[in-house]
Amino acid sequence: DLAQPQKALEILAQATQQNGPVDILINNAGMQFVDHFTSISEADAARAMDLNYTTPPPLMRGVLPAMQQRNTGVIVNVASLAAITPTPYMAEYAASKAALAALSTALSSEYKDTAIQLLTVNPGPVKTAMAARAHERFAGGAARHVPYGTADGLAVEIRRAIQSKKRKLVYPAVYRAAEYFRDVSIWLTAEFAPKPK
């Protein structure tokens, strides 16, 4: 259970023992609760924060020394477009992913003079089981009409970003404007975000 940082470190230790040092670490696990802020239990909020944010730093600390020693390696932190444009009724998710994005961006600058690449990925809507569950929670179908990417498409773009040594990726590409016009994007999201049932 990656929501338990200690368990994640145990898995990392087993993987390194069996396969040697990690070349690429992808922090992709995540979960969200779609509801009014006060309707989400403290236990669920804590579990989401642990999985989305608390676990990745120990994993990064677990691989970075060996990467530094070899002066090579890639860490991919999958945050969310919600880290750029916080989404109503997904406040805990947005906060946890914003924390991961901030950490990842700061570390990218910290390691810029090495051959270690830290890539921050901010996916917008992607057709996944998590997205489908979120739609079930929303009243009305407005969220279904926004541009969507696919998991395979995201994987391809992450691979390209690694190959071209990028430090940031927003996918699908149509959402890149959100980063450049953040205030407008936040206003639009607040105005048009559907409400949960």
Polypeptide structure, described:
The chain is 51% helix and 13% strand. The chain is an alpha/beta fold and 197 residues long. The protein contains eight helices and six strands. Strands 1-2-3-6 form a four-stranded parallel β-sheet, sandwiched between helices. The chain has a two-stranded parallel ribbon with strand order 4-5.
Number of distinct helices: 8
Number of strands: 6
How far apart the termini lie comes to: 29 Å
Shape: globular
Q: What percent of residues are in strands?
A: 5-15%
**Tell me about the biggest sheet?**
4 strands, parallel
Q: Average pLDDT, to the nearest integer?
A: 91
What is the string of helix and strand elements?
A: HEHHEHEEHEHEHH
Query: Structural class of the helices, strands and pairings?
Result: alpha/beta
Strand order, largest beta sheet: 1-2-3-6
> How big is the Rg?
17 Å
Kindly state the percentage of residues in helix: 40-55%
In terms of per-residue confidence, which ranges show pLDDT below 50 for 5 or more consecutive residues?
none
